[in-house]
Amino acid sequence: MNREDLKNYKYSQKWIKRQLEKYEEQRSMVLNISKTIDGMPHAKNKPNYSLENLIDKYDEILEILKKDQEKQNEILMQIRKIEEPYRTILTDKYILNMTLEETAVDIGYAYENTCRMHGTALNKFDNLENSSVEIKTNQ
Fold first, then answer.
1. Residues 6 or more apart whose Cβ sits within 8 Å of residue 97
2. Which of 35, 53, 121, 139 has the fewest CB atoms within 10 Å around its CB?
3. 8 Å CB contact between 16 and 65
4. Could you read off the pLDDT of 11-25 as tens digits, one per residue?
């Protein structure tokens, strides 16, 4: 994972949350539709076909959500490899959506120092990504 993945973490989390909410809405709608269908095969029973298509579509969305969540977990694992206080800075900024001012108060450093440390933390995050790529290619 690189710093762009880290910066997009919060947007990915929001997207996952919205997709799960939509999925739950559609799931409840499908359950309501399925209650009205008698289960008997009818040649002109279009709701059955719509229901099957809807279920297939949401199975595909669930697969995308699983892959996206795996990516989020990789980002969290990579952050855990960074020493403190850099880990806290990245976690506060990109995972908890705190500002650098709030993070400075959280870790007890001056704002200017926190800004410099933020840059160092991003470099450490990138270096971890680059070193893991090198390890994979050497194997």
1. 10
2. 139
3. yes
4. 877 877 887 787 777
